[in-house]
Structure formats: structure tokens, C-alpha cells
Amino acid sequence: MIYLDSAATSLQKPAAVAYAAAEAIRTMASPGRGAYESAMLAADTVLDCRLALADLFCVRDPDRVVLTSSATHGLNIAIRSLLRPGDRAVISGYEHNAVLRPLHAMGARIDVAASPLFRPEEAVEAFRKKLPGARAAVCTQVSNVFGYVLPVERIAALCRKEGVPLIIDASQGAGCLGLDFDGLGCAFAAMPGHKGLLGPQGTGVLLCGKILPEPLMMGGTGSMSAEEDMPPFLPDRLEAGTHNVPGAAGLLAGVRWLARRTAPAVLAHERELLAAFSRRLAGCGGVRLYMAPDPACQTGVVSAVFRDLDCETAAARLGERGVAVRAGLHCAPLAHRTAGTFDTGTVRFSFSPFNTMAEALQAADIALAVAKT
User: Does residue 302 sit in the same domain as residue 248?
Assistant: First the structure.
């Protein structure tokens, strides 16, 4: 199988990730619940994971690195910490349902700073017009559908100028794009552990700024147990219940692998594969690829529309020939509406550090064959 669905989850991971998770199951108890060896080993592992993430994302205080179950979990915390019913939230035109649905459910007024695909200047201008008076803003670092790199640094600067707290959804950027969290001065940044960070499913990260977040869940923390309220300090305030220690151990292994490889090297590799894939498909009238005119505006993710096949059929035929992709609206209907692909959906190809040039070219040849069937 040629696995080109890493934008959904990193099925291919460093061997150390599975080993670390298995060792945690075998040797570690719960952190903060005892002073015996297996509990202390768990506490050390969770702390090491927090420290590694703080270093990777330039967070000076590792206590502001909160371990969650997913990016969705973190985004829900961030949104509910900043907004109340009726508040206006400015979002990009490329947000995932992990942003849209919490905003809708809480009754926020959703104001879309819409701009065309792969047009960062227009994205900045759209936010510039919409931000004044907003209660909060949300911007994805990279579109999960198109691999479009949004200008979050410039949008963060606008938010600082207007005094509008910013939430960054780094789900598709973490692991291939840098993120200077403290430097950006945003309120929160959320990401999964199982995509570019190469950790297990069921892991995630929420980076917290100066605003004290509201807990989404309440329960035991191993600290301030005599109090009925959640602790007023991080990370305990947001980490109710027993930690996913095997997940943290696996995530730590993934982050350490990434730190050795470096995000810029990962991004360069994925862009190289995407460029070769797109060149092989150039001139094929049966497939339209949504490619950025400027390669700096796109990661190793690309969407395609097959002229004579609906996206689900095309993806199924690719799968039959050994190419794993995702088709449809990718839990991001707003992105498809913005790009004009809502009625058709797309077939998404997403490359990873573990794909090879031979796989990229073979997948392109298979896509050509599918387009001709």
C-alpha cells in the first residue's frame, strides 16, 4: 500500500513510538497518584513530553503545555474559554468542523474572513477588515483540504494590534511548519498528536497563553484534592482524570524523532514529493490538482478533482490499486465552499516523512490510470 492519507493520521511512524507506548503499558502507573517507582516513571514521562513540546513550539513555561485527547478537545477548551453566546468570532474561510461546530453550538456569531485559495495577501486583508470589535479570532495554520499555508504570523500581528485573542488550529502545520507560540502572542494553539507529531491516536496538545482557560471537564488531578473547584493553575486545571500515559510516551518518542529530523527537513521532503507527483500529472485533462502558484503557500497536501469520476469513486479505485487517500468534504465544508469544491468534494493526497519518491511517482501513474477508466 502507498499510504497518502497522513493529513488524517500518520499511520507510518518511527518504530520508537510503538515501542515507547508498549513499554508505558508494561511499566508505568498514573502520574501524581503515588511516590512509588512506576508512578514516578509515569510522571517523569509526562513531564518529559511536556518539556519536549515546549521546546519545539517555543513555550517558555512548560506548564502552559496541556496534554489533551485531540486537537478537537483543545479547540473546544480554547473556544469556550474566550467566547460566550452572542459574541462575534472572526474565522478564516478554511476552518475545520472542530472550530465551526463548537462555535455554532455555543451560539457565537461566526464572521468569516473569506479569501480566495492560495491568496495570503487577501487573507490578511480580510482579517484586517473583520477584526475590529471581535471577541476572538480563529485561524488554521494550514488547510487540511488543500495544504494551503495561511499567513498566521501576519494575522497574529493584526490580532495583537486590535487586542483580539487568537486561537491557532495547528493541526496540519505541527511537525512540518515552525510555530513560535510565545512570539506570536496568541491566546491558544491546538494540535493533534497523531498527525505531524507522529504520536498515537488519542493524543493532542493545547498551548495556552496568558488567559486562564475554562476547564471542559472536571475531576481528579492529584493536586488540591480537598477543593471542590478545579485548580487555578496549569496544567492541572485542564488535565482532569487519569493521563493517557502510553499516549504521552508514544508522543514523546514522535516529537524526539521530529526534533532530530527537524520540521524544515520534513517540509522540504514532502514538498519535493508533491512537486514530482504534480509534474507527473501535468497535462492530464482528466485530473485537476489544486496547486499553489507559489510553493511556499502549500505543504505536502493536495486536493484533486477527477473530471469523469465523483470523488468517492475515484478514491475507491485508487484504493483498489493500492493508493490510500481520503475523499469527500474532509470535515471542512467551509474550506470547500470557499474554494468552490463543495458540490463535488475532492480527493486528497497527503505525503509524509516516510513516503518515498518512488511511491509519489507510482501513485501519480495510478491516478493517471484511474482518470482514464
Answer: no
Q: Examine the fold and report which residue of 228, 243, 261 is the final residue of a domain before the chain moves on.
A: 261
Cα of 237 vs its chain's centroid, Å: 23
Check whether 346 has a pLDDT greater than 90. Answer: yes
What is the C-alpha separation between 220 and 230, in angstroms, rounded? 8
Question: Does one domain contain both 235 and 278?
Answer: no
- Residue 21's contacts (CB-CB under 8 Å, 6 or more residues apart) are 200, 246, 247, 249, 250, 253
- Listed in sequence order, the residues at least 6 apart from 187 whose beta carbon sits closer than 8 Å to its beta carbon are 78, 81, 82, 136, 165, 166, 167, 208, 209, 210, 211
CA dist 174 → 141, 181, 207, 263 (Å): 9, 12, 12, 8
pLDDT of 32 above 90: no
The three grid cell numbers given for residue 10, joined into one nine-digit string: 500518520
Listed residues 245, 261, 277: the one ending a domain:
261
My answer on whether 183 and 285 are in the same domain is no
User: Which structural domain range is residue 152 located in?
Assistant: 15-261
| Per-residue pLDDT, 283 | 82
Question: Looking at the structure, do residues 317 and 249 belong to the same domain, yes or no?
Answer: no
Q: Is it true that the peptide bond before 85 is cis, omega within 30 degrees of 0?
A: no
Number of domains in the chain: 2
> In this structure, what DSSP letter does residue 133 have?
T
Which residues pair with residue 346 across a beta bridge? 328
The pLDDT assigned to 190 comes to 98
Check whether residue 324 and residue 243 sit in a common domain. Answer: no
Provide the 8-state DSSP code for 323: E
Asked if the model's pLDDT at residue 220 lies above 90, the reply is yes
Q: Are residues 94 and 64 in the same domain?
A: yes
**Which residue, among 129, 175, 177, 132, has the nearest Cα to 153 in the 3D structure?**
177
Name the residue with higher pLDDT: 33 or 291: 291
CATH code of the domain covering residue 61: 3.40.640.10
* Phi, psi angles (nearest 5°) of residue 303: -105, 150
Q: What is the pTM of this model?
A: 0.97
Sequential DSSP letters for 12-47: S--HHHHHHHHHHHHH---TTS-SSHHHHHHHHHHH
**Is pLDDT above 90 for 96?**
yes
